Amino acid sequence: MTVVKLILQIVLVVLSLLLTLLILMHKGKGGGLSDMFGGGLTQNAGSSGVAEKNLNRWTVIIALIWVAIIIALGLFTKFGVA
Q1: pTM (predicted TM-score)
Q2: How far lies 66's CA from each of 8, 62, 73, in Å?
């Protein structure tokens, strides 16, 4: 089980980096930090195209996998598996 735990930890690090990049790729919705860096000047902020919808889907899917791996690693730790 040590190998499984190590693989899950490596996948968790990769998914964490990927999730960070996906979140940073999202368009600012206005208000908040995105306006501070010039995000408030965009037009059509309310409309999202196919790329934005796909980005949202990928972000949610990766986030759910990320949470599942964290729960699995927590259970490994709780029950003393490797």
Answers
A1: 0.74
A2: 10, 6, 11
